[in-house]
Design a protein that fits this description.
- The mean pLDDT is 96.
- Strands 8, 9, 10, 11, 12, 13, 14, 15 and 16 form a nine-stranded mixed beta sheet that branches.
- By secondary structure, the chain is an alpha+beta fold.
- It starts with 6 loop residues before the first strand and ends with a strand.
Length: 306
């Protein structure tokens, strides 16, 4: 269950959580065209709170809206201010942040010439998406029978709400088979990403991750690449086959919700020694130090709440 907060920002106003409702004929509810972001605010070691890579998330939200041909009726600065105000009014030291842009009620059908674009920001307290034990000890994953959407089937560079039906099917299948997460292959049969996370492997001291052709170009993914390279690790973007995952020394997932979660088992095949590997743990520790304001080299990634 979502931990209910006090207020939600909707179309320019802060309203009570329970009053943030939409009409049953909301277009996006029927047809799946909306765009969203997942963002985190962390309580830092010095006691302040900071949103991680806020400007990059807002930029991606507006880019997604452009891909979806939806014009957001607020400037990026207005939206950024609204997001920060929503955190403050809910008095949360750390939280998950969900902005969403959607088409409201009005004309129905797949093609409508005139429609209202509505905007909302919700925040709530949310721990580790794949569990605290998963963060510490790793999770079990399954190669999904569902294929990740091809670039000409949908547009994976945008966080479009309807795209995630593909992820829901994959996740449900994995959970029903006793696994924690699903890994999807692309239309060519190469490794794409997990249901809601990007994927990395470590093989013979080299960190590898699939190129961004059929995946969401994750902000956490980019952050991990930067942190790993700054630490002196070699990172390569290249196509990966499913059997390369089985024989990798380490495998881990990255994402705003999942943060950095190790994988200890894929399709009943133990990864490495069956626990988070040395490089995974090193990068994970560094990442959490960054988001909590402990590494001043990455200070520009943090937007502190005043």
């Amino acid at each position: 269950m979502v931990n209910k907060a006090k207020k939600i920002w909707l179309d320019g106003k802060l309203i009570n959580w329970d009053d943030a409702n939409v009409h049953i004929l909301t277009h996006s509810l029927h047809y799946g065209l909306g765009v969203f972001e997942g963002i985190r605010c962390y309580e830092c070691t010095d006691g302040r709170s900071a949103v991680f890579r806020l400007d990059d998330h807002i930029a991606r939200l507006y880019a997604s809206a452009k891909v979806a041909q939806m014009t957001i009726p607020f400037t990026t600065q207005e939206f950024t201010d609204a997001l920060i105000d929503t955190i403050k009014v809910n008095e949360l030291r750390s939280c998950y942040i969900r902005p969403i842009i959607f088409i409201g009620d009005g004309p129905m059908g797949l093609f409508v010439e005139e429609y209202s674009v509505r905007c909302s920001i919700a925040v709530w307290a949310w721990g580790a998406y794949l569990g605290e034990d998963g963060i510490k000890n790793g999770i079990r994953a399954k190669i999904s029978s569902f294929t990740r959407l091809h670039v000409n089937v949908n547009m994976p560079k945008a966080k479009i709400t309807g795209n995630y039906v593909n992820s829901i099917f994959a996740k449900k299948e994995a959970k029903e088979c006793g696994y924690d997460e699903a890994i999807l292959l692309d239309a060519e049969g190469y490794v794409s990403e997990a249901s809601g996370e990007n994927l990395f492997i470590v093989s013979k001291g080299i960190i590898k991750t699939p190129p961004v052709h059929s995946i969401l170009d994750g902000i956490t993914r980019e952050s991990i690449i930067r942190i790993a390279m700054d630490k002196g690790y070699t990172v390569k973007e290249e196509k990966l086959t499913r059997d390369e995952l089985y024989i990798a020394d380490e495998v881990f997932l990255t994402g705003t919700a999942a943060e950095l979660t190790p994988i200890r088992d894929i399709d009943n095949r133990t990864i490495g020694e069956g626990r988070p590997g040395r490089m995974t743990k090193d990068i994970q520790d560094s990442y959490f130090a960054v988001v909590k304001g402990e590494n001043k080299a990455y200070e520009s990634w943090l937007t502190y709440l005043k």
